[in-house]
Design a protein that fits this description.
- It contains five helices and five strands; from the N terminus they run H-E-H-E-E-H-E-E-H-H.
- With 147 residues, it is an alpha+beta fold.
- The strands form two sheets. The chain has a three-stranded antiparallel β-sheet.
- The protein is elongated and about 75 Å long.
- This is Dehydrogenase.
- It comes from Methanolobus chelungpuianus.
- Pfam families: Fer4_7.
């Protein structure tokens, strides 16, 4: 019995499928329910602050930001500290107008070494500012084929 298990282990080491992967070179397979970086639709957001009140880590603050890149008019929008975010999705579930949604972006373009770079402003959440994450994640997500 012991010899049989040793032979099986040696076979798996050399001929079996790999059980680990190199991250981020080999992307993770994402399910349809995966919750990545939030995306903000400014036209739907009313600045009510329910997302900030439901966030268990207080990662969301309501700040004043421009309505659009070309407008000088300002309204209240959520700003998310991704460094403290659990990606639990409570802010998305509680948003009354579905202004917040989840994207498949989770790794590329988000990982940064300075905490101040992890503060995603409303412009970044609305993708009005290029965060390079969508472009990089799009390539990454496109490599994944659903099962």
């Amino acid at each position: 019995m012991v010899i049989k298990n040793v032979i099986r282990a040696v076979k798996n080491i050399y001929f079996g499928p790999s059980v680990t992967r190199m991250c981020p070179e080999v992307p993770t397979r994402l399910s349809d329910r995966f919750r990545g970086l939030q995306k903000l639709d400014k036209s739907k957001c009313i600045g009510c602050g329910i997302c900030a009140n439901t966030c268990p880590n207080n990662a969301i603050k309501i700040v004043k930001a421009r309505v659009s890149p070309t407008s000088d008019k300002k309204r209240w929008f959520p700003s998310i500290d991704i460094g403290h975010c659990l990606f639990c999705g409570l802010c998305i579930d509680q948003c009354p107008h579905e202004a917040l949604s989840s994207s498949k972006v989770y790794l590329t373009g988000i990982i940064r070494y300075d905490h101040c770079d992890l503060l995603f402003t409303p412009d970044m959440l609305a993708r009005e500012v290029d965060i390079r994450a969508e472009k990089e994640a799009g390539k990454e997500v496109s490599r994944w084929t659903p099962q």
